[in-house]
């Protein structure tokens, strides 16, 4: 084990600063330093010929301690030969060797070698923060935490790893880091065998078995297993976003969210798929993507059984059952269940068609329409019905088609007893009850309940007749006109005895 000098661990005071402290503060400081020395000794660090108490007495940075302490008789602990300057401390030093920690926190179960360590720890629960930074007003429960924090402002990192080039602002961070080289995990869970670098990590982990959540929010009824999670949660009440991006004006409540955001500037995508060449900025996005390979759809709708690869897809789908439409067009008042649906709709007002086919001159308002159109060139119909063999351009078309076999009609009208196989049919039907005519003709102002009816009507202005009879060449503006023509003209020509009743 390496040798750590006292200058590495004690908090610096000038003589003048030490003189300003009252006796209780000085005693607390001595207890803090002794606790630090004990903790480091407990994990194997050697103080060689130094004596913690002698260091207090001789260090010029600390000044001289009160005469009453200097004159206390030293006690020698026989197990390791250490000389303890105060008679009150041999029992505490002995606990380093026995591992005994008799002082336990009633709130979270964490235990300590000495009473002063427990008292300091209790401040994390009480919220007491006596030490305030004079540069950012952030406050801390312990003086040593303030000293460590102040290095954020100075950028000082005095503790360097001798195995790599990393440096740290506080020594404990260096000690924890060194375990990444040694692989040492001293603290093992007796329920599941999982091991941890720190005792505190083990204590937090144990709550996954007990379900204990000792950190409760004082503004709502939520509780958390870790204090850090409570502090993060509290920002949902305060609106605080302390982590600001240095490249744009965005700020975040959590540092992890800031780190993820920064990748939008750097383009970094550290999470790569092992089955294809795609990479992602967030691990959660990678996990969602992997379901495209496995076909896993863990989120199922309880009303119709449709399953989704991710939670957000299920939440959006549920709106088809509830009828919720939170996204409203400011120009015409039409509402949509999805933000993407509103964006596509807006293009009906602007006439924008950003998606162009590279094989013909057609353009589309949304990318899905372009992809579907391209199959008209390739003839591709990748989705085939296993019952009748009919194939479809889109998977959603296949799902709708399957209902013709099952007879399923999951979309029910809440005003009458009718049900439909498709949600679009239900929406059209509901306009019978509401009388809504959302599709208006810009040329004459006539309005229609369905978009298809508007399209047919527009041909009365343009003169377009896309439906042509193959037998006589006569053309019509709508499909129903062609069908009526065939029934009234050509069926009678083939069978003169057929009588057509035209009302």
From TrEMBL:
GO terms for biological process: regulation of transcription by RNA polymerase II. Keywords: DNA-binding, Metal-binding, Nucleus, Repeat, Transcription, Transcription regulation, Zinc, Zinc-finger. InterPro entries: KRAB, KRAB_dom_sf, Zinc_finger, Znf_C2H2_sf, Znf_C2H2_type. SUPFAM superfamilies: beta-beta-alpha zinc fingers, KRAB domain (Kruppel-associated box). Pfam families: KRAB (PF01352), zf-C2H2 (PF00096), zf-C2H2_4 (PF13894), zf-C2H2_6 (PF13912). Gene3D superfamilies: 6.10.140.140, Classic Zinc Finger. GO terms for cellular component: nucleus. The keyword Lipoprotein does not apply. One of its GO terms (molecular function) is RNA polymerase II cis-regulatory region sequence-specific DNA binding. Residues 75-102, 103-130, 131-158, 159-186, 187-214, 215-242, 243-270, 271-298, 299-326, 327-354, 355-382, 383-410, 411-438, 439-466, 467-495 form the C2H2-type domain. It is found in: Nucleus. Its main location: nucleus. Residues 4-75 form the KRAB domain. PANTHER family: PR DOMAIN ZINC FINGER PROTEIN (PTHR16515), ZINC FINGER PROTEIN 936 (PTHR16515:SF67). Belongs to the krueppel C2H2-type zinc-finger protein family. May be involved in transcriptional regulation. This is Zinc finger protein 937. It comes from Mus musculus. The gene is Zfp937.
């Amino acid at each position: 084990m390496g040798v750590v000098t006292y200058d590495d661990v004690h908090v610096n005071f000038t003589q003048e600063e030490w003189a300003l402290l009252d006796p209780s503060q000085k005693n607390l400081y001595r207890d803090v330093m002794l606790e630090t020395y004990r903790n480091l000794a407990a994990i194997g660090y050697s103080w060689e010929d130094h004596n913690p108490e002698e260091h207090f007495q001789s260090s010029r940075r600390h000044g001289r301690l009160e005469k009453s302490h200097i004159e206390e008789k030293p006690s020698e602990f026989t197990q390791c030969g250490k000389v303890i300057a105060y008679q009150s401390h041999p029992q505490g030093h002995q606990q380093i060797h026995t591992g005994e920690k008799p002082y336990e926190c009633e709130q979270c179960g964490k235990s300590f070698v000495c009473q002063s360590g427990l008292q300091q720890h209790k401040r994390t629960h009480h919220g007491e923060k006596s030490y305030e930074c004079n540069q950012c007003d952030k406050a801390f429960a312990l003086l040593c935490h303030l000293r460590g924090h102040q290095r954020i402002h100075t950028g000082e990192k005095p503790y360097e790893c001798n195995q790599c080039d990393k440096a740290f602002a506080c020594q404990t961070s260096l000690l924890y880091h060194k375990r990444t080289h040694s692989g040492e995990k001293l603290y093992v869970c007796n329920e599941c065998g999982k091991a941890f670098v720190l005792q505190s990590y083990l204590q937090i982990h144990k709550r996954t078995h007990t379900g204990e959540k000792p950190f409760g929010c004082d503004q709502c009824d939520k509780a958390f297993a870790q204090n850090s999670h409570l502090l993060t949660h509290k920002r949902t009440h305060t609106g605080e976003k302390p982590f600001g991006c240095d490249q744009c004006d965005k700020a975040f409540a959590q540092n992890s969210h800031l780190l993820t955001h920064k990748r939008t500037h750097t383009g970094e995508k550290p999470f790569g798929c092992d089955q294809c060449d795609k990479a992602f900025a967030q691990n959660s996005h990678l996990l969602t993507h992997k379901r495209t390979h496995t076909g896993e759809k863990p989120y199922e709708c309880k009303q119709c059984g449709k399953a989704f690869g991710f939670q957000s897809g299920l939440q959006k789908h549920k709106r088809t059952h509830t009828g919720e439409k939170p996204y409203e067009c400011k120009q015409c008042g039409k509402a949509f269940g999805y933000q993407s649906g509103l964006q596509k709709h807006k293009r009906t007002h602007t006439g924008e068609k950003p998606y162009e086919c590279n094989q013909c001159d057609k353009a589309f308002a949304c990318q899905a329409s372009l992809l579907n159109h391209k199959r008209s060139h390739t003839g591709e119909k990748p989705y085939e019905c296993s019952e009748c063999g009919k194939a479809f351009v889109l998977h959603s078309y296949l799902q709708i088609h399957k209902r013709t076999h099952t007879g399923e009609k999951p979309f029910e009208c809440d005003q009458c007893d009718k049900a439909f196989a498709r949600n679009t049919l239900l929406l059209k039907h509901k306009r019978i009850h509401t009388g809504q005519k959302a599709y208006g003709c810009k040329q004459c102002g006539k309005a229609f309940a369905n978009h298809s009816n508007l399209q047919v009507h527009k041909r009365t202005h343009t003169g377009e007749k896309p439906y042509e009879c193959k037998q006589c060449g006569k053309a019509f503006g709508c499909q129903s006109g062609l069908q009526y023509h065939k029934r009234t003209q050509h069926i009678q020509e083939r069978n003169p005895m057929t009588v057509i009743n035209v009302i």
